[in-house]
Design goal:
seven-stranded antiparallel β-sheet; alpha+beta; 7 strands; 44% helix
Amino acid sequence: MDDDVESSWKVFESDPACFNELFDALGVKGLIVDDLYSLDPASLAALQPLHALVFLFKWVAGSDEKGGASGAYDHDFTGFFMRQVVNNACATIAVLNGLFNIAEAEIGEQLSQLQEFSTGMDAETRGEIFTSSDWLRTQHNSLIPPSAISLANLGLPKTSEDAYHFVVYLPHLGAVYELDGLKRAPINHGAYSEAGEGWAAKAREVIEHRISTYPPGSIHFNLLAIRGDPLPSLRAQLEAAGDSPMVEVYQEQIRVEEEKRAAWAFENSLRRHNHLGLIHSLLLGLAQASPSAYDKAIENAKARYKERKEKAKKDGTWEE
């Protein structure tokens, strides 16, 4: 699908700031999306209550469609599942497949109406219903900056880029499921024990197995957690703490959470603005004021790019 077409779904950035903005637009209450840099038990425990994991990975044509053959299709899945029927909608499809299977999730009226309307429909039709919603597509695309330069109708050759895809992992009736809008059905990855880490331990096993199917050193992954919003409970604990020594602990935790949200809001304000015009004006002003300074800035930029490229090649993270 042509990204220049106004009615298309745009590529969604894998960042908690973007997903939380989407949650706000969809009227989601009591849940947030947070970064997850490690699957170790301590990192997962810090995000409790943990409801789902959103996994971004590099899609490879011809790869095993069940993530390393570690699960089995469940055509009798009793939860909510919809398929992806348009390009670039996988982020929203993944989080909705997650949200509609979280009993604690509170969603907005418009999203609730879509969910109710799709009740009883098959996964393909559900995908059609949701992705044909102008309102939902608008929320998905809300953080895409306006285009300052249009390359449409220039006859430029099409270039191929790596394709990335979002899926969601979550617990359902005692088993860990993978809900992937490109698959024909949810994938049951097996039962988990309620003891210890609970479903998170099984999810870690499944995701690590999937990552192991890629070449060693691959970095084409990102993991986000759908978790309970900690702020309401922290504020309630602070209010109930009285003169307890825990007051300072709760205050610090609240400060960290509030600063994180402020950073998300700032990042999203930048995402909404196309900076090409500003950059062009600054470079033009510099070139007019001092051509030698402009030339030096260009050379410095080339040198820094060369350094980063050489470092990336040395680290094995450079791709031609």
